[in-house]
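Changelog excerpt

This revision adds worked examples to the README so contributors can see how folded entries look when concatenated. The first example is reproduced verbatim below.
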Amino acid sequence: MSQNDLETALAGLQRNWQPLAVRIKTVEHDVTTPCSQLTLRLHFPAFRERESTVNDLVEVISKYMARFCLPRKQLAETYAKKATLDDDDYHLELTRLDHEAASLFIRGNRLSNRNGEGGELLLYLMTEWILSAPQIIAKMSLKTNRQVPAHGSDGVHVRYDAPTGKLVIFSGEAKLQKSLGKAISSAVESIGNALNAEQMSHELSLVKRHIDFTGMDDAAKSALLEYLNPYGTSSNARVEAVTCLIAFDFEAFETIGTAANDLDPEVAFAVEARKAVAKVGPAIAKALTDAGLGGRQVELFLFPLPSTAIFRTLFQNRIGWTEA
């Protein structure tokens, strides 16, 4: 058993997420906070002709629904049929996967009294892409099983940190709110719940019972399970962290869209977005500190939108969500 085996296996589970960079832009900033384990990441939908391409963003992320909702084993079994099916039959198999994933997503959200806002799918993509942390259980498939108490985080991802020999387990939390202040309050509460010892024990129990080992050999499986075993020599090198998406309404989209100058809209938007991070960064750090979470590892994705309500509606329409 070797951590090198685990590192190699997890690297093999990563996909080419670079196509997302066309639709999702990154804003570099130098905002720091007293919370040394808090990382503030800033992203936004790409612009076209001074307008945010939210429609295109929804179209693109919806294509990854099957990867988010369905176990890798099921996907791998379907992909393996390509060699034995003609093009038409293989296309039907892939279409079936997409329909099954959308159905699972809608049912899972309804069972958990959520409105299918799409934030959890966006968070999944950001965690896989930006953090290079593959998902190890498809929570949505568990949430639709009434025999499995799968309440809790929106997703569970892992990343092996070779320099320290630590395995980081990320519990995912996504928040879409019109108000950034309300989104922060809700996010901090969810982060606290996710890192609660009892809730984390529940999440680890789910991982151990439902982990998807597809693509991992026996050595990698053993190395990963060693981190999850409280009697294992690697268990003290396990880091329990949270990856969180906060999407919110941001008025700069409107001002950029109506600006009468030749400045590149994405450059102009980045200036306004950095100002916003400089203001809210300390507020987020204070909220985490006040909640006793100042020393916990949190990867926070700030994702301003022209309108969270419009994003939600576009996403629901795209996946076929209808009111029950």
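The second example, added in the same revision:
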Amino acid sequence: MLNFIARRIFQSIFVMLAVGFIAFAMFRYVGDPINNMVGQDTTLEQRAEIRKQLGLDDPFLLQYARFIGKAAQGDFGMSYRQRRPVSELIESRLPATLELSLVSAVMALFLGIPMGIYTALRRNGILSRTFMTISLIGISLPTFLIGILMILFFGVMLHWLPSFGRGDVVQLGWWSTGFLTNSGWQSLIMPAFTLALFQMTLIMRLVRAEMLEVMQADFIKFARARGLPDRIINFRHALKNTLVPVITITGLQLGSIIAFSIITETVFQWPGMGLLFIQSIGSVDIPVMAAYLLLIAFFFVIINLIVDLLYFAVDPRLRVQKS
């Protein structure tokens, strides 16, 4: 187990270096950040001095090595647009994104898995057909359209929920949370559901398909022949064997919730890292964009490592092969 973890950590470091290299190389061609930092009256000499101070005249490999070295220490440089350390910007926006992603992930899991189990066991029921219809809507409609429709219906027409922002937050040290205020929960409902809908329907359909396949297996037929109750067969035998592929897809989808929260945060003006990334693209703020991609890659690496460890807890075949 320790060798496995060490090998995955080494692979994760290589992935982070590769993502940093690609991000840093790609953002060199999105425009000149100096044009967004100075006015029209700035002379060429002043522009050259600013480029020298920012290190933009150095060779690419030197800039990349300097960026990676500082990033390993948590220093992502200065924001070209806001003239503040990027680490401070991320620290102020990270709680909003993580809370939105956490609530969306919990909603997708605790709704998607039971719905998938129910639609597999009660395929011809009215409620199952309703769940399948909802899943078609969740997969077919783009996220931004779902968010706009929810704002129109619940925010503009019914005035039940706020249409934008995070609501009131409470500072707990450097962490700002909306979980402790009523307006914070109200502001979280629509963006969290919008972000979770696609993941929830995907998990539901995956659980349903795997459950239907496992229910036709020989060991399930043998369990029925032994006279075991349906509850034990469905949840102890069938569901446990269903979870192995579900964990893989779910782990990747939970990582994509953080990565693709950009659209939801833009629609609802949620003050998270995704909205910061969109704003940074408009101003060619390269340090912020590179730091964001590195952070997203880090979350994916951690989630994949957790998924691999969960395999050993769910699938006994892996433990036998390892031993």
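Reviewer comment on example two: The chain has one domain: 86-322. The domain at 86-322 is CATH 1.10.3720.10 (MetI-like fold).
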